[in-house]
Amino acid sequence: MKRYDVILVGSGSAASQAAATLRDAGKEVAIIENWTFGGTCPQRGCDPKKMLVEGAELLARTEHMQKLGVKGSLSLDWASFKERIDEYRFSIPTSKTQHWNEMNIDLYQGEPHFIDENMIAIDGHELYASQFLIATGQTPRPLDIPGGEHAITSDDVFDLDALPPSIHIVGAGYIAFEFAHIFRRFGSDVTLLIRSHALKAFDQNVVHRLLEESKRIGITVRHDVEPKRIDGNTLTLSDDSTLEGVVLNATGRIPSIERLHLDTVGVKSDRHGVLVNEYLQTSNPNIYAAGDVANSPNPALTPFAGQEGRLAALNMLHGNTRALPERPAPTVVFSTPPIAKVGLTVEEAEAEGIAFDVKETDMSHFLTYKRINDPTAYSKLLISTEGHVIGAHLIGQHAPELINLFSFIIQNNLSHQHVKHLEVAYPTVASDISYLV
Ligand SMILES: Cc1cc2nc3c(=O)[nH]c(=O)nc-3n(C[C@H](O)[C@H](O)[C@H](O)COP(=O)(O)OP(=O)(O)OC[C@H]3O[C@@H](n4cnc5c(N)ncnc54)[C@H](O)[C@@H]3O)c2cc1C
């Protein structure tokens, strides 16, 4: 029987960081993956999605610039984008496996399950390890209506050979909004079926502006009906009306733990994932969990998966010495326009009893946005009475980069006086910051 110091289950961002940290410390490591090696982000998540977003953004930008003298029209060819995306995503397993082979990490592909706290079985093999890291991420939540299995998920979007003429998206989270905007900009008729609040974790003023802009670009946003049944290409709604076309299930993601037999080893979980303490250790001291699969306070996003993988590995190596840091999480919805946030929302700040002022700014009057004709640019900052930015909420073409500056400001606890006098290049997006705080 093969013996290892640590076996990592899953091969995404969390496992990658953990593997590097453990090998640097000289540990014998194996990785088990039940799909292709490399994880969600580069193969069916952030990266291929962002390649589609680039097209959608270019179209949006061109539309705005037509009022400033740009002539001609632009169109996006799904098949060509898909070809480039395939080139990228299909190269990931090879580059990852090569990298791990060079690091002398053993790789296993198949369906694993725990036998006991030191043993895992995979397709007839039994592997021993002193410790395990569960880093299996999340998977789309099934759409719980008759015929729900006919809906595609975000995983399947990248396999579509042709742009669907009509697509009906069920969900109200970031994946629903991003794909609604991508498909609309590429030329599909898009319906967004929203059950309750859209983008609950975001500032609702910002979300309202995004909803208005979604409608303006031709996305049909419906709050009044729910999906009832899917028969082939027909979606029946709760009012018994029907829609023809592809249905995209974007109702959320659930932890990928179904077939691991976690109960055998006393690892507890709930619907948000594997339960972990602040050191990312599960209810079994030999077994840690990191990334999207772990029910930690971090959002299910790539940078946090990587950080957690590294932190879990350090705790496995040195005992529980490093607790999860409390850091503000910058988050972006890559719609057109994008929205972004970091730090607290008004509701969160109030719940924490923090005294603060709100500063709202319509940035569309700034030259930065006049020169690209972006009428959506808006900022809402929460500034504590002690003078520190505690939350930033943005919409507009530059929101994804601007939010990183606010993340830096919040992480370093810079006072708004300090921020007002930062030396930055002009005329840039950053040079507006002194007017926002
Ligand atoms: C459409 C989409 C867009 C996204 N966009 C962004 C974005 O813009 N920015 C951002 O930060 N994040 C984004 N994310 C989230 C990001 O992809 C995840 O946060 C990140 O990939 C999590 O890394 P991980 O290592 O925890 O899990 P994963 O990368 O999901 O890796 C888990 C691996 O475990 C494997 N696995 C699952 N079950 C088992 C099992 N039983 N046995 C063995 N292996 C198993 C999986 O096949 C997978 O390879 C997006 C996700 C999606 C789906």
Describe the protein in words.
The chain is of the alpha/beta class and 437 residues long. It has three domains: 2-44 and 84-140 and 254-318, FAD/NAD(P)-binding domain (3-Layer(bba) Sandwich), CATH 3.50.50.60; 148-251, FAD/NAD(P)-binding domain, CATH 3.50.50; 337-436, Enolase-like, domain 1, CATH 3.30.390.30. 32% of the residues lie in helices and 25% in strands. Strands 1, 2, 3, 4, 5, 6 and 18 form a seven-stranded mixed β-sheet that branches. It has a five-stranded antiparallel β-sheet with strand order 20-21-24-23-22, sandwiched between helices. Strand 23 (378-384) and strand 24 (389-395) form a beta hairpin. The longest helix has 25 residues, at 78-102. It starts with a strand and ends with a helix. The mean pLDDT is 97. The protein binds flavin-adenine dinucleotide (FAD). Flavin-adenine dinucleotide binds at residues 9-15, 32-35, 39-41, 45-46, 49, 112, 135-137, 154, 175, 256, 259-260, 291-293, 300-303, 305.
Q: What is the residue-mean pLDDT, rounded to a whole number? A: 97
Query: Which structural class is indicated by helix and strand composition?
Result: alpha/beta
Highest CATH level, the class of the largest domain:
Alpha Beta
The fraction of residues assigned to DSSP E strands is 25-35%
Q: Would you summarize the structure shown here?
A:
Helices cover 32% and strands 25% of the residues. The protein has 437 residues and is an alpha/beta fold. It folds into 3 domains: 2-44 and 84-140 and 254-318, FAD/NAD(P)-binding domain (3-Layer(bba) Sandwich); 148-251, FAD/NAD(P)-binding domain (3-Layer(bba) Sandwich); 337-436, Enolase-like, domain 1.
